[in-house]
Amino acid sequence: MKTSLNRRRFLSTSVKTGAGLLILRNSRLAFAYDANSKLNIAGIGVGGQGRGSLDAFHHMGNNLVALCDVDRRRAGDIYQKYPAARPYEDFRRMFDEMEKQIDAVLVSTPDHTHAVASVAAMKLGKHVYCEKPLTRTVHEARVMREVAARQKVITQMGNQGSAERRLRRAVELVWGGVIGEVREAHVWFDGGNGPMKRPTETPPVPDGLNWDLWLGPAPFRPYSPAYVPASWRSWRAFGSGIVGDFGCHTANIMFRALHLERLWQPAANPGAAKVVIRLQGWPSEVDPEGYPSSLKVVMDLPARGELPPVKLTWYAKEKPSEDLLLGHERGGWGDLLVGSKGSIYSNNPWNAHYTLLPEKKFEDFEGGPPESLPRVQSQQGEWIDACKGKGRTFSDFDIGGPLTELSQLANLACFVEGPIEYDTLSGQILNSSPAAELLHREYRKGWTL
């Protein structure tokens, strides 16, 4: 059985929402307000990726009350498009001046400033929609999840494929036992990154860009066009490489179908002092500035209740054996779960479709468990619905946090010698001081979680 969705349709439907969606107003008492109310939304990082979500929120009938970007020239057309929204370049000042006028916040900055902006918003009781990956470091992802739970705000990570009905059906099929017991999984990305050479030239900062604010909590370095506006993803100081960038997309079916979030839940591990993931990486090279050209990381994931242990292998540029595809063509991207009765495979970077393997066995398959997950029109619309008390988000930080931790652990394993033992309950690396130092980094003065 094979499902399909082309890239153009996926990207176009990921930001569309239903007409007539009515939103409540108060961010802390979401369930007590009239459904005819509107949400007052602020955007942080609106000159790039955030444009699509801002448009979606606006088209749903919500108010865009504040727009913040450190590059006023790049964001200039957005400011003009929504003139009623007050423009800012520092989100801290925006919150100081407009806290009581904001209900919810979109965070769409580069990875290294996701956490500081999102945590600041959540501590003020604001609902948060944050683009993927949730954070640049393992520790930041844990803090995001903990703050969201403590503040009881509505959250959503922007891995938009999560809203795709085919992805949700794939998860249901695995939950329903269609491919049997899963003890092996593979996730691969079509390419790596490669060593990065830090620029030695120091050109002037372009007019309109506040370079100090763009750096945010990252250690200071001079401005270079090698970083902005769009090349920061390959730099360890700012981005997460291809594994961090796309892990929250391409590993999505795998993470949910195997209930890996349970590894982070004390209630799912009663009496356990520790829950340990063991992992080791084999990168093509270790570069202090960038991410590897290619890599392989193997993780041994413990049992989750009645679900057995799983060996999960990540690849960038490298690929698993074609034999695992049981005669199906191996794509450049992959999310593959190997079960005792068959396998399920998505070759779509966003997991927007899937194939049951072997294809001959499943060619007439139409059964499976009944639908148990809600079907939605968009990731953005689901968040807005949840903010007004209708349902919950599928990528809240209870899911997005651990999924980001797992992806960033794969990155971390390529920077130090392994194997590494990571305790999901404490957020600590148990056997490697060099690895433990990479769980987080010291922020520049003026920036905190």
Set down the secondary structure blueprint.
Layout: H1 7-13, E1 40-44, H2 50-59, E2 63-68, H3 76-81, E3 86-88, H4 91-98, E4 104-107, H5 114-123, E5 127-131, H6 138-151, E6 155-158, H7 165-175, E7 182-189, H8 211-215, H9 241-250, H10 252-257, E8 276-283, E9 295-301, E10 310-316, E11 334-339, E12 343-346, E13 355-357, H11 359-362, H12 379-387, H13 397-412, E14 420-423, E15 428-429, H14 433-436
Parallel strand pairs: 1-2, 1-4, 2-3, 4-5, 5-6, 7-10
Antiparallel strand pairs: 7-11, 8-9, 8-14, 9-10, 11-12, 12-13, 14-15
Helix pairs in contact: 5-6, 6-13, 9-13
Could you please describe the fold and organization of this structure?
- The protein is built from 14 helices and 15 strands.
- It has helices at residues 7-13, 50-59, 76-81, 91-98, 114-123, 138-151, 165-175, 211-215, 241-250, 252-257, 359-362, 379-387, 397-412, 433-436; strands spanning 40-44, 63-68, 86-88, 104-107, 127-131, 155-158, 182-189, 276-283, 295-301, 310-316, 334-339, 343-346, 355-357, 420-423, 428-429.
- The chain folds into two domains: 10-161, NAD(P)-binding Rossmann-like Domain (Rossmann fold), CATH 3.40.50.720; 163-194 and 236-374 and 398-436, Dihydrodipicolinate Reductase, domain 2, CATH 3.30.360.
- Mean pLDDT is 93; it is low at 5-33.
- The strands form two sheets. It has a nine-stranded mixed beta sheet with strand order 13-12-11-7-10-9-8-14-15. Strands 3-2-1-4-5-6 form a six-stranded parallel beta sheet, sandwiched between helices.
- The chain starts with 6 loop residues before the first helix and ends in a 13-residue tail after the last helix.
- It is globular, with a radius of gyration of 21 Å.
- It is of the alpha/beta class.
- Helix content is 27%, strand content 17%.
- Strand 11 and strand 12 form a beta hairpin.
